[in-house]
Amino acid sequence: MKDFTFVLSTRIEFGRGYIHRTGEVVKETGAKKVIVITDQGLIKAGIAGKAIDSMAHAGIDYVVYDGVQPNPKDVDCIAAGEMAKEFGADFVVAIGGGSSMDTAKAVAALITNPVTLPEIMKPYKVPIAPAPLLCIPTTAGTGSEVTSFSVITLTQEQRKSCMFDEKLRPEIALIDPELLLGVPDSIVASTGIDALTHAIEAYTCKISTPITDAFALQAIRYIGRSLRTLLYQRTYESAEEMMMASLMAGIAFGFSDIASVHALAEAIGGYYDTPHGVANSIFLPVVFEYDIPADVEKHKDIALALGVSPVGKSDREIAQGAVEWIETLSRDVGIPTLKELGYIEPERFEQFADVCMINVSTPNNCRRVDKQRYIELFEATFNR
Ligand code: NAD
Question: Which of 37, 47, 68, 99 for mutating ligand 1's site (highest number of atoms within 8 Å of CB)?
Fold first, then answer.
């Protein structure tokens, strides 16, 4: 077994209708002035309003920044950070998917640290503890409510970069599965496959541990039996299992790593602004298939957890069944192929491969990947 440390400092509050408890939970912390970080979609869907009303009811003084964009941008973090400081915020509430939660982490860090965003957009570069952060996830995808990462797009460089530091981990994750019941189909599908990618990469990467393996496999089981049900029937029970899967996958990769699917997805996400879950869904089958020979046993475990039948199959064939499971789901829910995105320029694959090679997770992919191999993975995905 490898040496490792595992301390989950986030308090998790999980239950139906819990968004209405936001005010009460924030009040308990002694917060005086709160900045809420969210996006226009969550305002229009009436979801942000539920948390905001609850804070107003609890007599909490707050201000709202609702300018978060998908693949959150550095410029928005800076603008929200300035708003927070002007207001004198001492607490941050994030309502939304990974984009709102990651922006909120950057804002929490900027409130307490007398530095610029570029100075802390590096590993372990948050000198002072950020303002406390409460996250309310509204997608079952990223698990950002329990991770110590913040993935931000550097607009000038057209690439995504990751800030990570234990101090960024949210103080409270307030999780209300009911919020998933109104998510549009395309977002349920792509974010669900995003959570699956986290669990798979956490389980197969070189630095997985017995604890992260347990979280990852359980997340995969939940996704195997509940992602389709959530999509096609929107039952509360499937929403519960998908929210739990996203959270458990977040814990799993947060204490191990992600790997080459994310390196490829972030390379095109940073350049073309491709939604993160869609990009992961596109690359997951190809990388999974490439990785099988490096660890047949673990890839077989994943297929079994997804519900692939083992009858009459070799271990390798069972593992291959997971590739078909993922591709069938992607087709059923209309996730485009890399070519169908319509804007991908194959002549840039070499440039994107360079971006993949500087991704901090590349060395932890279970099968060795070099620049040439990344170019081949881009080509194989494009021609699939
Ligand atoms: P998102 O936050 O970008 O949201 C996508 C869209 O869905 C938005 O338009 C939003 O308004 C809408 N939406 C969200 N919840 C909704 C709801 N309940 N009802 C209706 N509409 C809703 O999507 P995401 O996939 O959750 O986040 C992706 C981002 O998270 C990427 O930038 C990715 O890099 C990052 N990420 C971060 C971590 C981490 O640990 N920090 C992990 C994985 C991914």
Answer: 99
